[in-house]
Write a structure and sequence with these properties.
Elements: H1 2-54, H2 57-82, H3 85-88, H4 91-127
Helix pairs in contact: 1-2, 1-4, 2-4
Length: 128
């Protein structure tokens, strides 16, 4: 809950800076970047969670990292090479900002999940 609040607060700061720097076009570019990075983060969490249930936790983390990195990179490359107005509005910079925010949030969630699994497995060994 605190993490969601921190993400929302930092996102509002980035959106305010985007609007001040680029007006409505900057705000649209920042919102597009926020949606892209949040979508990549959520898909990454779902994929890593599903993969770590069927395979090793490391492969789940690697699959999640691949999704989290590849989706924003592919979209930014497509927008850049297409020459969209979003490039002029600074979307690439906003993707970098929101990528770091979502990376921190996802890292917090995954570390909490993995530490719970490790402590549970250690507890089973101690009692078993």
């Amino acid at each position: 809950m605190v993490l969601a609040g921190a993400g929302l607060l930092s996102g509002l700061v980035v959106l305010a800076v985007a609007y001040a720097a680029g007006g409505p076009a900057g705000l649209a570019a920042a919102l597009s970047a926020a949606i892209l990075c949040c979508l990549a983060g959520v898909l990454s969490l779902f994929a890593s969670n599903a993969a770590s249930r069927t395979t090793t936790p490391l492969s789940g983390l690697l699959i999640g990292m691949m999704i989290r990195m590849t989706l924003p990179l592919a979209v930014v490359m497509a927008i850049y090479y297409r020459g969209s107005w979003l490039v002029g509005a600074g979307m690439i910079y906003y993707v970098l900002a929101f990528y770091m925010i979502t990376l921190a949030a996802e890292t917090w969630v995954v570390v909490g999940r993995v530490s719970g699994v490790v402590s549970a497995s250690r507890g089973e060994r101690a009692h078993g």
